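Quick bug: Probable acetate kinase output formatted oddly.
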Amino acid sequence: MRKIILAVNAGSSSVKVSIFAAEPDQFPVQLAEAQVSGLTSPPAKLKYLRNGEVIVNNRAAEEFSEEGGHKNVTDQNSAFNLILSVFLSDPDLPDLPSRDSISLVCHRIVHGGDYARPQLITDDTLHHLEDLADLAPLHNAPALEIVRWCIDELSPPAKNIACFDSQFHATIPEHIRTYAINPEVARKKGLRKYGFHGISYSFITRAVAEYLGKDRDKVNMIALHLGSGASACAIKAGKSWDTSMGLTPLAGLPGATRSGTLDPSLVFHYTSNVSRLSHLSTSHLHLTRAEAILNLDSGWKALTGTTDFGTITKNRDSNPSMRLAFDLFANRVANYIGSYYVALEGKVDALVFAGGIGERSAELRREIVKLVGCLGFEIDEERNEQIREEGVVVWDVGKEGENEKLKRVLVCRTDEQFEMVRMCMEEEGVW
Ligand SMILES: Nc1ncnc2c1ncn2[C@@H]1O[C@H](COP(=O)(O)OP(=O)(O)O)[C@@H](O)[C@H]1O
Ligand SMILES: CC(=O)OP(=O)(O)O
Ligand SMILES: [Mg+2]
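Here's what came back:
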């Protein structure tokens, strides 16, 4: 039986929602997709595509919320509500005449703890995921607010399924996921590397393997998901071998408002009383002052005053703090590429850029590839600048030709919503 499925991806600065029509044993077909971006750099913008055609191109979300009499778009839940109303009021989207036509909602939940498969959201799963909220302070709580709304407003008939960013990284070997701390405490409290952006890495692995004409379980790559949150992943034989995020999405690369990895002692020298609860804590989220500083008041926001990496890229030649942020990011990313190149013993099929920044900033790609040139990566200036149509998923931006040793440099337009639906369709019981 044909089902209409909604896939909801609540990121730290955006909400992306796609609608699919799905039949058992077939790939889901996307009907429409919308995103509200720039939640951390207002005004938030709305983009809407139906059947791959751009209907609304980055217009202020406010205009739509005013027209439709909705509350202002300030967070993930209001962004989700706006998107749903855009879908429901589109007369050219006959597959979604009303809320009742949605039979499944797939939710991206960044921290899934030890869950190694998507989960049907019951009261028990919901409570368990609420308990994990403090380990993904920018993500789990806003995503669960959307989940609770969907349970109240769409169920029944809709079932809600949680898909986890952390799931893809369940294959990271023990010596890599273990921190050098008291093992007893680590075990009792679940203190280990979990890793995130895994739904995206799962999509990238499939798409790149297909592009290269290789079996998924034979492909090795260094993948970079660079968005408001940024991470790197060493993918060995199609599986996650290592990734830069850790117990929480704070570790590793810096991001829009996140510091990334730094000396763990730094925070005690930054300010006093760091373990006191931040005023930003809520009934669903316990956030210490230390966590608030490192997750919300650091990164591009602290260094430059903006969280928009497009602005940083554009102004880096005239603005020294933006130049510093740009160079700092390229340096940190290049360090991971070097480290993962060694982890993969040099057997790397491709270096892959994805995420809002990775897919759009030709300048950052050029800079990073230049820094890792000694490993056999080289950018093709012309291909790197070329803008690709919406439907293109993977493209090559590396130099080709004479030098056999050159390694591929690819861009992958990642699609976490598609991947979630694909993952859910593999679950028994979904139909
Ligand atoms: N042309 C561009 N050049 C550089 N960065 C861009 C460009 N367009 C968008 N971005 C950045 O992409 C980031 C959003 O990425 P995305 O992966 O969609 O975010 P999220 O982490 O919320 O999922 C923002 O920091 C935004 O500034
Ligand atoms: C895990 C994470 O940081 O996700 P996002 O980049 O979507 O905020
Ligand atoms: Mg994202």
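Actually, after a second look the formatting is fine. The domain at 215-412 is CATH 3.30.420.40 (Nucleotidyltransferase; domain 5). Closing.
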